[in-house]
Amino acid sequence: MFQSKARSLRRLLRCKHAAVSKASCSRLVLGIETSCDDTGAAVMDGSGAILGESLHSQKEVHLRTGGIIPTVAQQLHRENIQRVVQEALDRSGVAPAELSAVATTVKPGLALSLAVGLEFSRRFVRRHNKPFIPIHHMEAHALTVRMLHAVPFPFLVLLVSGGHSLLAVARGVDDFLLLGRTLDEAPGDTLDKVARRLSLRKHPRCATLSGGQAIELLAKDGDRRRFGFRTPMGQTPDCCFSFAGLRNQVTMLIKKTEAEEGKKVLLPAGTHKPAVVSASVTCAGVEEGTLLSQVSDIAAATQHTVASHLAKRTHRAVLFCKANGLLPEDTPTLVLSGGVASNQYIRRALLIIAEATGLRLLCPPARFCTDNGPMIAWNGVERLREGRGILPPGVDVSYEPRAALGLDLTAEVRAAAIRVPSIRMKIPD
Ligand code: KG4
Ligand code: ZN
């Protein structure tokens, strides 16, 4: 009894310092995320203060199996969701009866993963008779920054993750203009696949890292100029992205390097001493799966090309926004979010564009860039404040594995065919 009173007092004191009304501050939202391979939950008050959170990452399991197997992801969500939600509630000291609403990711994402979060939430809101707020995962990534900084609408946002690459203008909680999207795979997916092809899990410093994290770590010791990859879509004057061609270029280089390193190993003793190559060698080269001695250079060149591609498309998006008055003249802002936005090299590339075009760049810290419970709770808080998309407990909601973001302006951007002045992407290491 005393403990719960003390917690309420702490909440009230926190609210006194926040620039929101006491009424909205006392609204408490439980956020639940299961769209991909993280089971996340958080309890948040109306000012955006995280009262309690919990996260279970499936990363290590999927690294072992060489990618996300949807049935395995679903099973792991099932095994963990009850505990993760209970932990978030326990840490917050908030009882289900005190919640104002439950917000849960229902789109886009892996069908089997979304189903677990939605099913759990439907039972939870019915049992406790609470309103339900369905959340769009990419909208939540886009607005996470507002949990941390006072960023007014509208702002430009680049969302880069394992499943998406999007450029959009965020004009309101559920009001987005889509300027660009990927035509094939997402940058996180590309980095994960390159890391797998390079067998980075065998690298002593990368065993527990996601593909993107492993590439970033190794790239620090690499020479990005040793291998030159073509930046994608140089002749296409729009804001869309493509990463499949780059992955193909990297795969070809890896094959060539495997063949060359094999020859070096076969040289007579004393002529050459291989640094990392240790697995079996055939006349055709080292076997696929062997750690190459040039792995850091390949990582650095791949990361640089991804960063340059993202920066160039974003540069055009800024110019399109300026030409069409889509951003405020006073402190126009570029936000970078999503798992790949944790990458410091990519952040520095985007900073070059922001500085050249007079925009302020904001990126949430890495733990709020990758999937997490607070970003979903925050989206619930924002929707609750605006009274947008709040459903009664009994209403039937379905999940949507594919879901567009906002009003599609990609054809208009393409028709504008804006030429982007060349900027030297001299990204500091
Ligand atoms: O947003 P997120 O957690 O999940 C999705 O919604 O996809 O993003 C996960 C992706 C993975 O592909 C992972 O390799 C990538 O984000 N990632 C990174 C970094 N940290 C995570 N990519 C580049 N550099 C990083 N430091
Ligand atoms: Zn995500």
Question: Structural class of the helices, strands and pairings?
Answer: alpha/beta
Tally of separate helices: 15
**Average predicted confidence as pLDDT:** 92
Ions, cofactors and other ligands present here are: 5'-O-[(R)-(carboxyoxy)(hydroxy)phosphoryl]adenosine, zinc ion
Gyration radius (Cα, Å) is 23 Å
How far apart the termini lie comes to 54 Å
The biggest sheet amounts to: 6 strands, mixed
Strand order of the largest sheet: 12-11-6-7-8-13
| pLDDT < 50 runs, ≥5 residues | 268-279
Number of strands: 13
What do these coordinates show?
Helix 8 runs parallel beside helix 10 and helix 10 runs antiparallel to helix 11. A hairpin with a 2-residue loop joins strand 9 and strand 10. The longest helix is centred in the C-terminal third of the chain and has 29 residues. This protein is an alpha/beta fold and 429 residues long. The relative contact order is 0.16. The termini are far apart. A six-stranded mixed β-sheet has the order 12-11-6-7-8-13, with helices on both faces. About 3% of the residues have low confidence. It contains 15 helices and 13 strands. The site of zinc ion has 6 residues, from helix 6.
Give a quick summary of the entry.
With 429 residues, the chain is α/β, with parallel strands linked by helices.
Can you lay out the helices and strands and say which pair or pack?
Blueprint: H1 2-17, H2 22-25, E1 28-33, E2 38-45, E3 50-57, H3 59-65, H4 70-92, E4 101-107, H5 111-128, E5 132-136, H6 137-143, H7 145-148, E6 155-160, E7 165-172, E8 175-181, H8 187-197, H9 211-219, H10 244-266, E9 281-282, E10 285-286, H11 295-323, E11 333-337, H12 344-357, E12 360-362, H13 366-369, H14 373-386, E13 407-408, H15 410-416
Helix pairs in contact: 4-5, 6-14, 8-9, 8-10, 8-11, 9-11, 10-11, 11-12
Bound molecules: 5'-O-[(R)-(carboxyoxy)(hydroxy)phosphoryl]adenosine and zinc ion.
5'-O-[(R)-(carboxyoxy)(hydroxy)phosphoryl]adenosine binds next to α8 and α9.
